[in-house]
Amino acid sequence: MPLAGLTGNGVRVAIVDSGVHASHPHVGNVVGGIRLRVDGQDADFVDVLGHGTAVTAAIHEKVPEAELIAVKIFDRQLTAGGDILARAIRYAAGEGARLVNLSLGTTNLARAPLLENAVAAATAMGGLVVAAREVAGTEYLPGILQGVASVLLDWTVPRDELEITEDDRGITFRASGYPRPIPGVPADRNLSGASFAVANVTGFLARLCEIDAQARTPGDIVRLLSSTRNSALRA
Q1: Domains in the chain with CATH codes
Q2: Which of 86, 132, 169, 189 is the most buried (most CB within 10 A)?
Q3: 0.85 exceeded by pTM
Q4: Helix (H, G, I), strand (E, B) or coil at 141
């Protein structure tokens, strides 16, 4: 199945993070956003940390025509409670996001039931959560949960490819941790890591969602990819 030229047209992606600078030159097609607070919510999704903007730029590079929604849960630091994360997942799917990018996670296993319910709710609404399964050998929620598109950072995977493996723990998507390059800045001086492996996977999956509007689980994605007779998805 040829994927060249796919741009994410008609696909909505939510980025749960520190918000986004919608006017940044590497970002585009941000159609809305929200800030979730412990005591409520408001429309101030402007990024004051930069992480969410960088993640959004990595996704936008892969799918420049996808509709992007910023769901801001981080403000002055990259920490937020599990309750807000669960709310963010539900909110994103409720706003029609086919993919919910979580370049974040928690090692607190006591949060598993809360996040399981949020992931199940998102799936029921047609949203697929994308998150890291582990980082440097440490497992993270919700990336280890059933129904999540689990991501592993793999520096051996070229930046323009997605690889898929399946073992007794299920389906895993592997991708590079490098974001889009910045002219004049060496790759080792740019931001990199598991956050961008997740963003790269989200971008690739958004292309597939453009092809098949019914793909909503990791298994659906793999079945769709199997029709290509290719284990790697190229940019």
Answers
A1: 12-234 (3.40.50.200)
A2: 132
A3: yes
A4: strand
